[in-house]
């Protein structure tokens, strides 16, 4: 934090799901999942500045009031610490909005880290992670970064250590998809199989550990891809175009609609990106939310 300006700026990564196995919906409305989260170097930034009242600003399309999860993050941390949520949160985005890359969750995680520093709270990491889980299933991972197994709602994390980096092309869609609508479409297809577990993720974890992009390409999986494609049939054409352009493989990112293509190298990723307009190149793993 700069003493003169009393401003804290936090960088926070987007996530991919290298594997996303979805089980039945529980009574709390959430599905049990077994997933492998992977943080990438496509980031948002949240800048926290003292302000008489809580306020949020961001680019067009980003909610500025209580509809923004960052607002709830500031409120939840302030309530726990017994302080006023007297902060302005300025959100700079490069993560696609409603794109299946957990951008809103990332902004909430960044807000926890920024407000914790601005208010001098020094909240223990485990406590921040507990607050994060109360905000949303993907928020704890945005704090942690790297690569991690996620069980339960996706919020019970175990870090996976691996070798090397993976290189991707991400193709955002013009309009976002809402996560609840994709899970609802998943449910419409009939009863889910048994509750997924870490045993369903061994191929992906082994590929991350070895650092082999080809092994990872063979192991990537996403149970939300089929429902996302039913809601957005045009995404099938995007996936086909990426494969035709030479990607190791392609898949929908989380609940979509962003499509991801795995490349063999950074140069290969830049070459693939030329097949699309509006695509970006990114790589992982990346660090979790951190002050810059
Ligand atoms: O946890 P989060 O608020 O990000 O989840 C958004 C929505 O996604 C939930 O309201 C729910 O409809 C769906 N979801 C789910 N099962 C999960 C995670 C999310 O059904 N494990």
Please, what is the average pLDDT?
96
Q: H/E element string?
A: EEEHEHHHEEEHHHEHHEEHEE
Q: Spans with pLDDT under 50 lasting ≥5 residues?
A: none
Please estimate the helix content.
25-40%
Structural class, judged by helices and strands? alpha+beta
- Radius of gyration, in Å, reads 19 Å
Tertiary shape: globular
Largest sheet: 8 strands, mixed
Bound molecules: cytidine-5'-monophosphate
Q: How far is the first residue's CA from the last residue's CA?
A: 9 Å
Give the strand content: 25-35%
Number of helices: 10
Annotation, overall tally of beta strands: 12
Protein model, in words:
This protein starts with 7 loop residues before the first strand and ends with a strand. The chain is α+β, with helices and mostly antiparallel strands and 292 residues long. The strands form 2 sheets. Strands 1, 2, 3, 4, 5, 6, 8 and 12 form an 8-stranded mixed sheet that branches. A 4-stranded antiparallel sheet has the order 9-10-7-11, with helices on both faces. A hairpin with a 5-residue loop joins strand 1 and strand 2. It binds cytidine-5'-monophosphate. Cytidine-5'-monophosphate (C5P) binds next to strand 2 and helix 5. The site of cytidine-5'-monophosphate has 12 residues, from strand 2 and helix 5.
